[in-house]
Each structure stands twice: as C-alpha cells, then as structure tokens.
Specification:
CATH superfamily of the largest domain: Ribonuclease H-like superfamily/Ribonuclease H
Structural class: alpha/beta
Order of helices and strands: HHHEEEHEHHEHHHH
Shape: globular
Number of strands: 5
Largest sheet: 5 strands, mixed
Helix content: 40-55%
Radius of gyration: 18 Å
CATH class of the largest domain: Alpha Beta
Length: about 250
C-alpha cells in the first residue's frame, strides 16, 4: 500500500494494469493484478482522479453548485478551499485536512485525525475563519463538508458555498497540488511512525511551506508574502533551513 501510495502520487493516471507493472519493477516477489486492484480500491484510488476514500457523499445532505468556473481570483481572502487526504504512517494511515487561500496558496489551518469524522474538518474551518472570512468557500461533496454542522458555520458567516462536481479533480486543483507537495517533500521522505511524529513534522513543514518555500506561480514569492502583501526580511529559522535542505533537490513548485 505504501508503494502504491508513492507510485500513484507520481503517476495518478496509472490504472490497475500500469500500477501492477510498475510494482513488479520495484519488488522481488510476484504481484497479482487482482491484489493491486483490491488495494487501490481500499485506498479509494482510480486512474486520473485521486480520491483516497475520504470523500464519501451522503445523499441526504444538500449539495451546492460549483461557483468558481471562470471566476476571477484577484486577491487574498476572496476564496478559501479545503480537502482531505491520507498520509501514511508505519502500520497504517491518518487523515489530513487543510484550508488554503486560493490566491496566495497560504495554508490557513490544518488538522490531523485517525478517523474520518466531521470534527477535525470543523476545527480547521473555524480556525481559518478566525483569520478572515472569504466571499466563497469551496470543497468537494464529501459528507464532512456537506453536513449541516459544516455548511451551517459557513452560512452563519455569510460565506457563499461552492462544491466540486462529482469526479472532477481539477475543480479543487490548488489543494490537489498542495497534497502532492506535502507528500513528496515531507510525508514520503520522513516516513512518520506515529500520529505525534506526523503532527510535529507537518507543523514544521507547513511553516516552511508558508514562509520560506518559493512558488513559481507566485513569481517565486512565498504564500505568506503574497497573502499579507509584503516580503519577509527576517532571517530564516535554522529549523526551516534544515527542512529546505531535505527538499531542495526535489522541489515541486505549485
């Protein structure tokens, strides 16, 4: 499952057959296509569109239309977006939820959980709203985000709710790019053993991501500089310099 996780993050267009062939080159034991298919199903993976079993819809929940097609995003604080991904631990997986600002790519909040309940997503949402209230908030149609608890917080804050179309990865492209960066630059190299290790490591990484990691699409500025409208002049912390040294050879700029 860890090998499938790594390979799929690199090649999300691989289906069962290509994934099987890729795995056969990585291991010295037989790889059965049916077994690969079953493990991909367990992780909720299918070719082109990665959904790690985190976005199960609830038919009784109200769904909202997608509002961001051809919508100009011109400033920080205009549109927030959220999603859930899995991260691998030794012996299992945990779930990571984050809220980002679309314009600046700034990670406003994040939470890690060992269950797919709504509570950890709500905590991330409420923290993000304390930092500013956007015009539009976008998510997929997973039951966590369509629940009355979640949408009620947004409605009371006067936020327009937008939701991806079913099976449309590109509707929430900036969060998908964030997950790719998080996995390649932090999760895979670190190989966390426990939830505590993962929380501590991700805390350092998101600080690095926001404050020091240059983004090509932002003119090589940092999300923090774009979000708050100024460049940081302070010297980078030593801890963040070490984080940079571990990823400088494999930057994936988004």
């Amino acid at each position: 499952m860890n090998l499938i996780d790594s390979q799929y993050t690199e090649t999300p267009f691989y289906g069962r057959r290509r994934m099987t062939e890729a795995l056969r080159k990585l291991v010295d034991f037989p790889v059965n296509p049916k077994r690969v298919s079953g493990l991909m199903a367990t992780l909720g993976l299918q070719a082109i569109y990665p959904k790690p079993n985190t976005s199960r819809a609830n038919k009784s929940h109200e769904k909202y239309p997608y509002l961001l097609k051809d919508y100009p995003i011109v400033r920080p604080g205009q549109v927030y977006s959220t999603d859930i991904t899995y991260i691998r631990l030794n012996g299992g997986f945990a779930y990571l939820c984050a809220v980002i600002d679309w314009h600046s790519r700034y990670v406003l909040s994040w939470r890690l959980s060992n269950t797919l309940d709504t509570e950890f997503c709500l905590e991330a949402l409420e923290e993000a709203l304390r930092k500013g209230v956007p015009e539009i908030f976008n998510s997929d149609q997973g039951c966590q985000f369509t629940s009355e608890e979640y949408t009620g917080v947004l409605r009371r804050a006067g936020v327009l709710i937008s939701m991806d179309g079913r099976g449309r990865a590109l509707d929430n492209i900036f969060v998908e790019r964030l997950w790719r960066s998080v996995k390649y630059e932090n999760i895979f190299p670190r190989n966390y053993r426990t939830m505590q290790e993962a929380r501590e490591g991700l805390s350092r990484y998101f600080t690095f991501y926001n404050e020091e990691r240059p983004h090509q699409s932002l003119g090589y500025r940092t999300p923090k500089a774009v979000h708050f409208g100024k460049e940081e002049k302070a010297e980078p912390k030593k801890l963040l310099k070490r984080e940079l040294s571990l990823t400088e050879n494999s930057f994936l700029l988004c």
